[in-house]
Amino acid sequence: VQLQASGGGLVQPGASLRLSCTHSGFTLDDYAICWFRQAPGAEREGLSCFSGGDDSTYYAGSVKGRFTSSGDKNTVYLQLNNLGPEDTGRYYCGAGPRAIMILAAMSGTVPTMKVVSWGQGTLVTVSS
After folding, report:
1. For a Cys staple, 32 with which of 51, 66, 86, 127, CB 3.0–4.6 Å?
2. For 37-95, what is each residue's pLDDT tens digit?
């Protein structure tokens, strides 16, 4: 299982970005891809998950309505809209069993301990 995140950059407040997580070694029918953000000095925070088996999604309350996750055969995307300085951080994608989405919905937190493989992260900086 290999993942590679890309698409980060320096943008102004209010801008949009689309992050990509290219994956290989597994199919989305069996796994979910989740996006996490780690701000400087903070813990890694789960933001969104996408499962290709049924195109189901999960969003944390902090990004619901602004971020959208989607995917195709080999790539999962995270569309970031109306970015603010609080969205600054390194964004990681991680793969886990589809049950990770059920656990996230029940607890309101994406369980990082269920992630079996991580991408290297891509940096998003929102600044004027």
Report:
1. 51
2. 999 999 999 999 999 878 899 999 999 999 999 998 889 999 999 999 999 999 999 99
